[in-house]
Design brief:
- This protein is an all-beta fold.
- The chain is built from 1 helix and 28 strands.
- 1% of the residues lie in helices and 39% in strands.
- The strands form 8 sheets. Strands 17, 18, 19, 20, 21, 22, 23, 24, 25, 26, 27 and 28 form a 12-stranded antiparallel sheet that branches. The protein has a 3-stranded antiparallel sheet with strand order 1-2-3, with no helix packed on it.
- Strand 1 and strand 2 form a beta hairpin.
- The protein is globular.
- It comes from Pterocles gutturalis.
- Keywords: Calcium, Disulfide bond, EGF-like domain, Glycoprotein, Repeat, Signal.
- Pfam families: EGF, Laminin_G_2.
Length: 398
């Protein structure tokens, strides 16, 4: 598989192959080689339907039957490759050559690649585009970079401060503890402290411990499974207790949650009903929804267990089997490659549940979770020893 953006005879080309055929898109207008004009380029695909946009003029490739997931377990190259032998002959129109020109502000799946000296894995024959320390976006939040004898300085907008305009003025004198995040509230000319796992209080300076995790919104726990390398991923299992008065919310997401091709198993609530979604490969997400209106949102404790036996999924609610389905009788994909990562209640601060789950779940979980067990482990997972924010002690009965 591959996805390649290249310059061919003055035109921008997008070529990708998902395993069955090569799709080619090309811009209508040429890129003039005057070296003085920056161009904005957007390219990508949704399933096997591609799109290409150059300076606001876009073209699309209609989807046709075939593969719809890109399997690229390789390094990501910008401007060239370490060896021309790595380039698939179908990825470019002519003989592959390295790019000559300037590239900045590359964003892949909403994450910006840092094109600095230290951040990439490797590279060669690459220099700063304008020959100064301001050649890259060194000043954050629309700050203006100025070249100085000692390096550079940033002139910051009114609401920002710091050497690179990275800090809100409302957080510049914050009293948040060392394990907390400062979230500015410009409308109130103030800030709030979001506490790291194991801390509470207005300024997150009170140490706490718990066995029941209380999620209050904008909360999450990210647990790294230490036994992932020894798991039989064709036979997965997760069980937990939860209580809530909300009708929507993501309870647990087993999976990396980084891009659309990651495997996952998710449990949550939709319209007051328990919903389980599983993806074992090729972005085929299979939602399993309890057919009856459940009592999951009655503030009582409920026990849920999801068992994956290759492509057969069983869901138990309060020890009653409520769902049983073979999601792929052909058994094309049978393993849950979840990367050893389990999210509870939501995702990292700033990542919206509706976006990360592509609309499968709408909101973060508000309620309590306890007694989480993975696979056939004899012990519950220690939620207190994970990463997380805005999670509190649910033992107090509030």
């Amino acid at each position: 598989d591959f996805l390649c953006i290249s310059l061919a005879n003055g035109f921008i080309q997008l070529r990708y192959n998902l395993g069955d055929k090569t799709v080619i898109l090309q811009t209508f207008q040429r890129v003039h080689a005057n070296g003085n004009t920056w161009h904005s380029l957007k390219a990508g695909r949704v399933g096997n339907e591609g799109y290409l946009d150059l300076d606001g003029t876009s073209i699309t490739q209609k989807a046709s039957p075939g593969m719809n997931a890109l399997d690229t377990h390789t390094d990501f190259f910008v401007g060239g490759v370490s060896s021309l032998n790595l380039v698939n002959p179908m990825a470019v129109e002519n003989e592959p050559t390295g790019f000559t020109g300037c590239i900045q502000e590359i964003v892949i799946n909403d994450r910006e690649l840092k094109l600095t000296v230290t951040d990439p894995k490797g590279g060669a024959n690459v220099g700063d585009c304008d020959g100064t320390v301001c050649g890259y976006t060194v000043c954050k939040n629309n700050g203006t970079c100025r070249v100085e004898n000692s390096g550079f300085s940033c002139s910051c907008p009114q609401e920002w401060t710091g050497s690179t305009c990275e800090q809100s003025i409302h957080c510049s004198q914050n009293r948040c503890g060392s394990q907390a995040l400062c979230i500015p509230e410009p409308a109130l000319l103030s800030y709030i402290c979001v506490c790291g796992l194991g801390w509470s209080g207005k300024y997150c300076d009170s140490k706490i411990t718990f066995f029941i995790a209380k999620f209050v919104g904008n909360s999450y726990i990210k647990y790294m499974d230490p036994y992932y390398g020894k798991r039989d991923l064709q036979h997965s299992r997760i069980s937990l207790n939860f209580t809530t008065n909300q009708t929507e919310g993501l309870i647990v997401w087993m999976g990396k949650g980084e891009d659309e091709d990651n495997d996952f198993l998710a449990i949550g609530l939709t319209n007051g009903t328990l919903k389980v979604v599983i993806n074992l490969g090729e972005r085929i997400s299979v939602p399993l929804i309890h057919s009856q209106y459940s009592t999951c949102c009655d503030e009582r404790w409920h026990f849920v267990t999801v068992v994956q036996n290759q492509t057969c999924i069983k869901v138990y609610l309060d020890e009653e089997l409520i769902l049983f389905e073979d999601i792929d009788p052909h058994k094309k994909y049978t393993a849950l490659n979840y990367g050893g990562i389990c999210y509870f209640g939501g995702f990292e601060i700033g990542r919206k549940v509706s976006i990360v789950t592509t609309g499968l779940f709408q909101k973060e979980f508000i309620g309590k979770i306890k007694d989480v067990v993975l696979f056939q482990d004899s012990k519950k997972i220690p939620l207190m020893k994970a990463e997380g924010y805005n999670v509190y002690n649910g033992n107090d009965g509030n």
